[in-house]
Amino acid sequence: xxxxxxxxxxxxxxxxxxxxxxxxxxxxxxxxxxxxxxxxxxxxxxxxxxxxxxxxxxxxxxxxxxxxxxxxxxxxxxxxxxxxxxxxxxxxxxxxxxxxxxxxxxxxxxxxxxxxxxxxxxxxxxxxxxxxxxxxxxxxxxxxxxxxxxxxxxxxxxxxxxxxxxxxxxxxxxxxxxxxxxxxxxxxxxxxxxxxxxxxxxxxxxxxxxxxxxxxxxxxxxxxxxxxxxxxxxxxxxxxxxxxxxxxxxxxxxxxxxxxxxxxxxxxxxxxxxxxxxxxxxxxxxxxxxxxxxxxxxxxxxxxxxxxxxxxxxxxxxxxxxxxxxxxxxxxxxxxx
Amino acid sequence: xxxxxxxxxxxxxxxxxxxxxxxxxxxxxxxxxxxxxxxxxxxxxxxxxxxxxxxxxxxxxxxxxxxxxxxxxxxxxxxxxxxxxxxxxxxxxxxxxxxxxxxxxxxxxxxxxxxxxxxxxxxxxxxxxxxxxxxxxxxxxxxxxxxxxxxxxxxxxxxxxxxxxxxxxxxxxxxxxxxxxxxxxxxxxxxxxxxxxxxxxxxxxxxxxxxxxxxxxxxxxxxxxxxxxxxxxxxxxxxxxxxxxxxxxxxxxxxxxxxxxxxxxxxxxxxxxxxxxxxxxxxxxxxxxxxxxxxxxxxxxxxxxxxxxxxxxxxxxxxxxxxxxxxxxxxxxxxxx
DNA sequence: TTGTACGCGTTATCAT
DNA sequence: ATGATAACGCGTACAA
Lengths: 337, 337
What we know:
Rossmann fold, 16% strand, 434 Repressor (Amino-terminal Domain), Peripla_BP_I (chains A, B), 3 domains, alpha/beta, homodimer, DNA-binding (chains A, B), DNA-binding
């Protein structure tokens, strides 16, 4: 490997001079600088970031941990995070926990041993607490995305889940729906809890009755097996006229199930959900959704993180950004009145 | 930061002994090992991968560079790559070139300075040549994905683009279509060239006439502006009855355009394309496609890469994997006979 | 303006 | 079974 010493020898200067040329620090005569640069070119020199990291005690590496790389919400978010990181000269390591605590634990180990400068992460849920405490213990700055974790104080970017869910219920109620069921992610996830809460409040405000039977809790990720949800739906009597889904992936699973049961959307049942389904829809977007600003989650979260890293010694107050969801009315709701 | 010296001091052993415990190398008495382990626990010791990388001359980092993080083909591929990397104890750095040569160049710089152990990449196109030569010059093992680059010998995973395109034409021809147009990615991309070639051969085999007017070349990424493609379509006389799209994203763009023109698919015009649209489709998959094994691209490519890294000194012959595309017949083609 | 000595945290080599 | 020393490639502090 070509090192600064090889350059130094060939250019008849010291390694220090080469270092200064590379980093544009200190005073260097134009002649020396030109000579060193020429030799670097000739020898195809590339600085060794590993050595640099060791001495500088910073890697210029950031880590983004998401929970579902197949979900367009997270890929769009990743795009925002990547753009912001790049803008500030950081590189981005990348992981996908699959809503799985053990995979998340593995990634935390990687994060720690890699000595990344900071972490942007969507935690798997409340049980992620020890993972986050571990990051804190090791002084790794992090910003949470989309989900709060009780017991952790930190910078965070959230969507307005409660308000968004209420809007979805309002929309359904305005269309004349009275029996509205909800399919939601795990109650160990703060955003799922808030969506449920917003749903309940929306029901109450619209003077609709809520029953626990009308709630089905599962995972936010893709489902391998729809039979359990099928049994839930089977038992409902009377059938709901509409279903609110806690996120986009679940909405698709619900539609898959309805299809199996030969029920049409929205003729037989209406559907709304949180999060949009990404730009690459085969046909005109169909689902009525509370769309979140996925790109902004990543972009703003990353800016917060880098800001925090820049002032890691000061104890600035934690920042919390709450992004509103936008109701996009499309064709998955049937007017009943 | 807690180092092996801190552990060593507290455990009354040398740093070397601590290192041996960590890496399970050499002979250590059970008593010493237990003591060292206990101290490591107490002090929350985490090995410093940076220092390790410097001395071992390997980072255990791999890099995946794709061209469109919003495209489900690539996210699925990424998932495969990640799974394979993890299985072998590697971590994965991640970049998104956006089909853009300059972004690609930036990432090559990152790759070089980071001293990753290997790279898995979908090149932006033939002009990526100098970037790949740069990797070769610096002895960075890499595996190409989806696209060949003339002038570069290396391991590679390809889809059978020619055969896939021919199948799509066959399917259209069998449905009675005679005027088939093609919307394709840049001809500087090998897979786009092969798809065009497969299309032409398919036309010939089915005794259909091909005219250059019926070919529209653009970028494989999302289009900001459909007006140019609109003018192309406008000029066609007679109108094609079907369009073959070079990939999934372009197919969606074509459908967006047709929608603007109030043309229905497949009633007014039929559409087929390369690549599927991912698992999260709002409604039942609609497009008839030549589906590629996206996950396998990533998984097998990663295994090849790691295999290559393990034998980087030997000069084994380059491997080339060609994955077949599978025709999935759905509802975007109207039978004309 | 340029150079010397040292340290970042770890592992390999050689010694005991 | 354990330890001392050097080395990985670079940047900081200080000296010249």
